[in-house]
Automatic annotation (TrEMBL):
Taxonomic classification: Eukaryota, Metazoa, Spiralia, Lophotrochozoa, Mollusca
Organism: Dreissena polymorpha (Zebra mussel)
Cadherin domain span: 31-128, 129-242, 243-358
Stored PROSITE patterns: CADHERIN_1, CADHERIN_2
Name of the molecule in the record: Cadherin domain-containing protein
GO function terms (MF aspect): beta-catenin binding; cadherin binding; calcium ion binding
Compartments, record wording: Membrane
GO biological process assignments: cell migration; homophilic cell adhesion via plasma membrane adhesion molecules
Keyword Membrane: yes
Entry's Gene Ontology cellular component terms: catenin complex
Gene3D superfamilies in alphabetical order: Cadherins (2.60.40.60)
Amino acid sequence: MATDQGETPLSTTATVSIVVTMSDNAPPRFDKQEYMTELLENQPVFTNVFTMMADCRSSVIYTIIAGNEKDVFAINPNSGVIFTKKMVDYEMDHGFNLTIRGTSVIHSYAVAYLFVHVIDANDNAPEFVHMEYVGNITEGAKVGSIVLDGKAEPLVVKATDKDSSLNAILMYEIRDDFAKKFIIIDPNTGALRTAVEIDHEVISKIEMTVEVWDMGKPQLRSRSPAKVTVYINDVNDTPPQFSAQSYKAEVLLPTYKDVIVSQTVATDADTGINSKLQYSIVKGNSEKRFRISKFSGAVYIDNEVDIGDAYTLTIEVYDGVFRSQALLNISISKPVQHPFHFTQEVYVASVHENSPMEKTLTVLQVADRALNQQYTFSLLNGQGKFEMGRTSGVLTTTGVLFDREEINIYNLVVEVGYFCSIVNF
């Protein structure tokens, strides 16, 4: 505004525009101090990443002065375009923090920062931590019970994925339809549980394969499925059973101690220790005429003196929890006379104690072979130390050591047809 000095001052105004321009000597200037951009991994070399621009009256030369130690990036010094020199792998580098300098022709400069965030691509298939898993579950466990590993910890089928975010979220599935009837897998964690109550006597082992895939796009699956074996631990829930409810046996006179009377047999559908059976005579043996092998169920003569005509024994088998019983009916009778007989009523042989060698002791012969018949021989009380040739009549030792201080005489009973003879050792 301008004003004169008259008696009555007059004034006027004018508009003045002032343009501020950059000095030719001013340094370059970036419009931001920090920049950010994203780069998808596995992009080809020479992919443009970002363009840096600085204001300056003169031309600017751009350089990367820090953050490019792996020599992944390069910058066009004139245009400021940053591009890749190498393919970037997210699993190796999640990001880069580059320092960019713009320098003018008079060597003044400005510095800005560019953070390159690497975006994960779904380029890694999941991999199982182990290719084989083994677990167990107790039979009869409630539905939904956890399958355990060998350390009694929950069995978890585990896989890993080198990718991130959705690309690393994994889903698990049992491939075998048969196994799915018994076992279910948590699709998110890989933990295994029972789908039904499982009976060991129906199925003792479940084998299956488990597959895993990620939730990326495209979805990637493991190269090979994992093998999982689940053993069903047996519980003693089944009582033993005899092969028959009653047995019949005939003992021919004369008879002697340790002559076998009958072989009782019981089985148990359980396994392992739950199927270990023990036999006993619980009734009918008040005179102690008989004894039973605790583990084999074989019944033997224990006292033959003044033995009666008939006995009914109650045999019991026990598996540690359950008991079962069967009857053994024993008749004592004299042998029927036949037109054949042993050439001797008594055979005598000897054996050295502590000898491990099998030895032929004697040969039993039957008279009246004019009938031209084939005879069969049975050793009724071999006690594991003697054997009899079924058709030859040859009596041998088995190689089990003899101890004279324990037993110095063995009375063996051999049967041919229905006729018995005594052999004394």
